[in-house]
Design a protein that fits this description.
alpha/beta; TIM Barrel; twelve-stranded mixed β-sheet; 10 helices; 12 strands; globular; binds S-adenosylmethionine
Length: 322
């Protein structure tokens, strides 16, 4: 098992397979993707090496992310490789959802269990203003297809300053009869967007208090649950999750490690430049990689330093996938 010096165990890997994305979310890639080309990212065989090493050390859940993972031509194969790695029991992805309507069945058949789709507004004009893509209708159709295909569906919503009671009520109305978990995420500061963050960040705490006042109740958390707080309401089929990275003790339940599309290991979303795994990946040296992972994990810090405005090397989350 991968364990750090603070008693946290890491059975969950977030694997980014590309930094590229064709959406232009205001808080992520507002000017569009301008980074390295596709050949700089992990190949399928390097991905297999990463997966085998982590799975051999107890990783049972993998989230494939990016950039936009579905932009890779070999994406369906990558799902299959992940699902077929001994020890991996759950395969999830995070996506903008633009390709979900056509691909949900294919991805499910390849071994995908769960999809997290990013939707920051249910108002088509606001959605287009935030993402730079007028595609809310397609994304919503994708969610319906994904649920029909048997995928577990979660929706990620970043809370921006205009996230008021009206928007919240609209989201809640949408999950009344939909078995979808909505995850409201507090905007995190990243290196490139300090000004945007200062304008747009709002604490999720008032949202939590409002939900409790409306009869939403906290779900009992499993011991190995990650940092999201979850809520249910007897009148709603959907559930709510809150991700409040600025809340006290957020990092105590950290259960994940990250590998970026360039093959760097990140012990925290907001830490160092990344520790290169390339020498092991080039040689398909699974054992060497496992020893390296165990060695460096002891230097994982107890908490991020976002409260002090320290965003580490993370310029934007497309670099790492969130
Ligand atoms: N392209 C995919 C997508 O759109 O979901 C995956 C990559 S995206 C970077 C992963 C998640 O990070 C999305 O749900 C996005 O909303 C969230 N995200 C990006 N920047 C963020 C920030 N500064 N604070 C909080 N969440 C952020």
């Amino acid at each position: 098992m991968l364990q750090d010096n603070h008693g946290r165990q890491f059975y969950y890997l977030r694997l980014s397979i590309t930094e590229a994305c064709n959406f232009r979310c205001q808080y992520c890639l507002p000017d569009g993707y301008q980074g390295p080309s596709a050949d700089s990212f992990l190949s399928k065989s390097e991905i297999q090496t990463v997966l085998s090493a982590f799975a051999g050390l107890g990783t049972s859940k993998v989230r494939i992310t990016g950039g936009e993972p579905s932009l890779r031509r070999d994406f369906t194969d990558i799902i299959s490789v992940t699902a077929n790695t001994p020890g991996i029991k759950r395969v999830a992805m995070t996506t903008h959802g633009g390709r979900l309507a056509q691909k949900a069945r294919e991805w499910k058949a390849a071994g995908l269990d769960q999809v997290n789709v990013s939707i920051d507004s249910l108002d088509p004009r606001q959605f287009a203003a935030i993402t730079g893509q007028d595609k809310l209708k397609e994304v919503l159709a994708g969610i319906d297809n994904a649920a029909e295909a048997g995928l577990d569906v979660k929706v990620n919503t970043v809370m921006l300053s205009q996230f008021d009671e009206k928007r919240l009520t609209r989201f809640l109305g949408w999950i009344k009869d939909k078995p979808v978990t909505l995850r409201f995420i507090e905007l995190m500061q990243t290196g490139e967007h300090e000004g945007f963050f200062n304008h747009q960040h709002q604490s999720g705490q008032p949202v939590k208090e409002w939900l409790l006042s409306q009869g939403w109740a906290p779900l009992i958390r499993r011991k190995d649950a990650g940092p999201a707080q979850e809520f249910y309401h007897p009148d709603y089929q959907g559930k709510i999750g809150l991700i409040l990275p600025y809340s006290k003790d957020f990092c105590q339940s950290c259960n994940r490690l990250r590998v970026a599309a360039n093959g760097n290991l990140h012990l925290c979303l907001f830490s160092e430049q990344g520790l290169t795994l390339q020498p092991y990946l080039r040689e398909n040296d699974i054992q060497g990689l496992q020893q390296y992972l165990q060695k460096v994990l002891v230097s994982k810090e107890a908490t991020h330093h976002l409260h002090e405005g320290q965003t580490g090397a993370t310029k934007h989350l497309a670099m790492l996938g969130g």
